[in-house]
Amino acid sequence: MNKTAVALAVACYSVLSLSGCVVGPDFKAPVPKLPANWASVPTEAGHNHALQTAVDLHWWDRFGDRQLSALVREAQQRNFDVQLAASRLQQSLAIRRQINADTLPEVGATAAYSRSRNSQKGLSDPSGHSGKQAFNLWNGGLGFSWEADLWGRVKRSVEAADASVQVAVQDRNAVQLLVIVQTAQHYIQLRGTQQALAVVEQNLQIARRSLQLTRLQLREGVATDLQVSEAGAQVAEIEARQAPLQQRSAQLINALGLLLAREPRALQAQLSAAAGVPAYGADVPIGLPSELAQRRPDIRRAEARLHAATAAIGMAEADFYPRITLSGSIGFQATQLSDLGSWGSRNFAFGPGLSVPVFEGGRLQGALQLQEGRQQEAGIAYQQTVLRAWHEVDDTLVAYQASQRRRDSLQQAVMHSQRALDSVHQQYAQGTVDFLNVLTVQNALLANEAALVDSTAQVSLSLVDVFAALGGGWQG
């Protein structure tokens, strides 16, 4: 082995031994400041404490509605937003693979042929013909180059790319959770609207019977034309409530179809038949507060962005230091194809290249300050995300508690209104009260029943908001 080869080997070994140095701060996952316990929340079973068990990953199945579960499963598979988020994740993975390629040598093969003739008055002719005739030139070989990652610039860039992949993962998880929540919300609202329409139809039947009774009393001379007109107006007013509810029902079915990537009215036959509002049939498992950072995609996304910003500081710091690139080539060159590949036609070149920043007018310092500022921004955004999540959980738990109290009160109001309507109908038939009393009591019953249907749906909707705030569901 000659001295040149020995020196080259020593240089390569020195570069490789230095490549373990990594500049810039190492990322440390932040510890979010979360409460030790949740607020006390009365549940459907009457327990007045927060149940700190694991959040059910398929919480929508606990509503006991097969139609809801089927819609959620289909939405997870067909929804366009979920597909777009998955596509963006694949793009992020592809970028990561591109960046990771910088850790490995770049090797390329070349092969070329040319027919040329040099000037007789120009530079030397490699063919030896002094430019008097044309000649063939055959080339073939391998070349490689590799940047020695002396200061960890490439390693930090791969680290930042990994964090960016995690951002895309959490974006996909957030979209998946949102689609699940929207599907459940639209379905609950649809069933609530259908129940409200059923209440209107029941009251319409009562109003029509009252109108028939009033007309009969008019023929018997007991009632007046005014009372008949009032009864007719009551029927028309209740009938007018049907159209907006039917419109709302059709719109919600179409909204569900859009979430499932289906054409308009595709779910009409499947969902047009009225059904009860799905109710959660068990205590609400809300998990431990400390687990919120592992469940909520937005917190995990904020942490990944902080990680990427921290790694970018190391990349900016590495630009202050020299870069060494090892490159080389080996091949063959000949003017005759028969000579190509012979020992005499060989050629090679090996050696390191050094690049040192000498004067850049503050560009590198500005780039470093920019990355430090972005890391600070990402850290603040992480704290804000955690605090916002905490508030959302607390607000949804309070709303769930309030919706249950309102529903229980309205159940009592509906019970009393029904008794009052039965009583006033008997009194009106006996002629002891006028029709105005009947109208007043019936309007009160209609209002209370409509409010109860809305409140029942709101309890389930509030519970969906609780699970959304807790971040449960996307893991499925």
TrEMBL record:
It comes from the Bacteria. Residues 111-130 are annotated as: Disordered. Keywords: Cell outer membrane, Lipoprotein, Membrane, Palmitate, Transmembrane, Transmembrane beta strand. Residues 113-122 have a biased composition (Polar residues). Its main location: membrane. It is a lipid-anchor. It is found in: Cell outer membrane. Belongs to the outer membrane factor (OMF) (TC 1.B.17) family. This is Efflux transporter outer membrane subunit. It comes from Pseudomonas bubulae.
